[in-house]
Amino acid sequence: MEYKIVTIPGDGIGPEIVREACRVLDQVGESYGHTFSYTKILMGGCSIDEYGVPLTDEALATAKQADAVLLGAVGGNVGNSRWYDVAPNLRPEAGLLAIRKGLNLFANMRPAYLYRELADACPLKKEIIGDGFNMVIMRELTGGLYFGERHTEEVNGVLQATDTLVYNENEIRRIAIKAFDIAMKRRKHVISVDKANVLDSSRLWRKVVEEVAKDYPEVKLEHMLVDNCAMQLVMNPGQFDVVLTENMFGDILSDEASMITGSIGMLSSASFNETKFGLYEPSHGSAPDIAGKDIANPIATILSAAMMLRYSFDLDKEAAAIETAVQEVLTEGWRTSDIMADGCKQVGTTEMGGLIAAKVAANAIN
Ligand code: IPM
Ligand code: MG
């Protein structure tokens, strides 16, 4: 079968890491008899350079036609005046928000998993790490403060800025359902994170999440205030299975969760609408300072491609083949510079991609 993938290499290290992910996908195709076709679109700074906007209507329309989208990263140094001395809605990151909204990708899934091999890179004490942790953050992605009405005005000669945090019950319900569905396939435990001691939107969030929970009697639901959650993540990360939260809290907590895995260069993510369609991207940014040097870690993007196989194409065996390949390459001691440790062998972006593709090939034969 042929799967149509739209790729968005984007800016900074984006093109290098997407290239390696496609190389691994191609090996999966060869080893397991699938065809992946790629159509590239521009988004972010590279689109601004070419078209003056971070995402064109044509690019969005192309993405809509795909079976899935694979994204590298967008954005650059804020010192880049061509991209940043413009209105906020014309900056590279606005392309990301526009594609999320344009494709209705309301559910963002960010796994945070501690590889045994990388435990030394985890900044937490050994007694806190314990047996490690394996959680997934389900972040609402098309509502809340990111998309509420905002403006800056002068009131009685004083500048004043307003952002609004709006959620309706349907927006909460659909992300809650996704979180409970995922929990059913994992350890059946949802921690819903809010600020219900202060915010109305959080009180509605709690109410709707409790309603949804009634349809999942096997899943244990707990509520946690966001400030406490930030603390618990570094005190007892092992307690988390599925974390369900709104857009802004999810943005902040997912960075925190990624850091305790040792390197943000390892974390994949997926964003979904109501269908099988998904947008897959590493959780990290475009790292412009190391772009083009062949030192970026492509693993997060390669693991995002594995998520694409599993969630959009139902190719579970092939997804697992990529994940096993990554695990084996790490076990053998191969490391990019961000996760380098004593006694390991340092490789660049291209070589890491090649090692993982080779493992996929070898394991398929055996
Ligand atoms: C993320 C990023 C984006 C966000 C930025 C680049 C707009 O931090 O995907 O987490 O805040 O959602
Ligand atoms: Mg973020």
Keyword list:
366 residues, ten-stranded mixed sheet, single chain, alpha/beta, binds magnesium ion
What can you see in these coordinates?
With 366 residues, the protein is α/β, with parallel strands linked by helices. It is 42% helix and 21% strand. The chain contains 13 helices and 14 strands. The chain has helices at residues 14-32, 45-51, 57-65, 81-84, 92-102, 126-129, 169-184, 200-213, 226-235, 247-259, 299-311, 316-331, 349-365, and strands at 2-10, 35-40, 68-73, 107-113, 134-140, 150-155, 158-163, 189-194, 220-225, 242-245, 268-272, 278-282, 334-335, 345-346. The protein has a ten-stranded mixed β-sheet, sandwiched between helices. Strands 6-7 form a two-stranded antiparallel ribbon. The two termini are 23 Å apart. The relative contact order is 0.16. The mean pLDDT is 96. Bound molecules: 3-isopropylmalic acid (IPM) and magnesium ion. 3-isopropylmalic acid is lined by residues 93, 96, 251. Magnesium ion binds next to helix 10.
